[in-house]
Amino acid sequence: MRSITKTLLAVTALCGSLAATTAGAQTLRVAHVDPDDWTGSKKGAAAQIFKNIVESESDMTVEIFPAGALGNEDELVAQVQDNLTQVALISGAMSKVCPAASVLDIPYTFSSATIAWDVLDGPFGDELAQHCLEETGLRTLAYGETGFRNFTNNTREIKSPADMAGLKFRVQPIPLYVEMVKGLGGEPTPIAWTELPNALSTGVVDGQENPVGVIYNNGLHKLQKYMTLDGHVYAADFIVISDEFYDMLEPAQQEVIRKAARVAGTMGRAIQQWNTAEGVGKAQAEGMQVYAPTADEIAAFADKAQPAVVEYLRGELGDDAEWIDRLQQAVADATE
Q1: Do 225 and 301 share a domain, yes or no?
Q2: What is the pLDDT along the chain (336 residues), one digit of tens a residue?
Q3: 44: domain range?
Q4: Residue 81 shares a structural domain with residue 204
Q5: 188 and 50, same structural domain?
Q6: CA dihedral in degrees (131, 133, 138, 144; nearest 10)?
Q7: How many domains does the chain have?
Q8: In this structure, are 106 and 244 located in the same domain?
Q9: What's 73's domain CATH number?
Q10: In Å, how far are 109, 156, 226, 312, 321 from 318, measured between CA atoms?
């Protein structure tokens, strides 16, 4: 039934898109998988402000489909490529269609969110966006933020890679994350997101890793005693538009779309930063022990995790492995 509903929504979106084009008007369907509540959802906040700006500064109309109403991220990517959905806010799904984007998941690459923003909003981010456009037909309008991912567990405080030995960590079913946890000495266990709470409750795994906002807002802090703010992966959001649709717009409309997306990305980042700071305090107040590693301790984590992941990515990316070096240089420049 859910599959049929999604199909009907997609067909409705296509018919509406054709009708809008015929009538000379433009309607954009914007989709994401997060909740619609702008106060707790970075994609929800980004989509809402995107709509407000586009509709207030042009004759275009924006319809928002939140919370996976049109499908999961992989399905949204396919819809935007086919111009069934015009705009999507996605994160992990981008690297599946544009492998070069996976370099952003190299652990301990970004020392802070501001360094990540400088890199993504600078020449490197522009070049990656152009590369992914050529590979996929998805035009990246701006970058948002899903946030830094951190380890939690229910066994002991983690201050060094040695503390991870023997612990089973739920990871996304993505090889890069498997290699990262292996490199750190833990035991990676790929488990679907929907199965995570049960896996933690029953002891199938000892811990997991996610951004603070995800950990707190989904009650994982109630199932885990310890959190280490190691920020091993900075997860970016991609605000993408169908290039086919974008090319049909008038220059003035394109300018409004670009502006709205950039503000939306900034809004998403701000909400994510708010959720992180607030989530840490709330988790501590509710009994979770939170540890913030020192710079030297983070370096020890990086020394273990980065080589394994970089070696894996070089093998997977082939000719696109140059993006690893380009990212590392961009981070070095931004840090300097």
Answers
A1: yes
A2: 444 444 444 444 444 444 344 335 799 999 999 999 888 899 999 999 999 999 999 999 999 999 999 999 999 999 999 999 999 999 989 999 999 999 999 999 999 999 999 999 999 999 999 999 999 999 999 999 999 999 999 999 999 999 999 999 999 988 999 999 999 999 999 998 889 999 999 999 999 999 999 999 999 999 999 999 999 999 999 999 999 999 999 999 999 999 999 999 999 999 999 999 999 999 999 999 999 999 999 999 999 999 999 999 999 999 999 999 999 999 999 999
A3: 2-146+236-277
A4: no
A5: no
A6: 50
A7: 2
A8: yes
A9: 3.40.190.170
A10: 20, 39, 38, 10, 5
Q: Do 196 and 208 lie in a common domain?
A: yes
Token digits of residue 227: 């959190």
Give the Å distances, CA to CA, from 37 to 43, 45, 48, 239.
Answer: 9, 7, 9, 18
Residue 250 sits in the same domain as residue 118: yes
Q: Are residues 25 and 120 in the same domain?
A: yes
Q: Which residues of 188-216 are buried (b: 16+ CB within 10 A; e: fewer)?
A: bbebeeeebeebbeeeebbbbbbbbbbbb
Residues 109 and 204 in one domain: no
What Cα–Cα distance (Å) separates residue 110 from each residue in 103, 140, 165, 188?
12, 21, 25, 22
Chain centroid to CA 45:
14
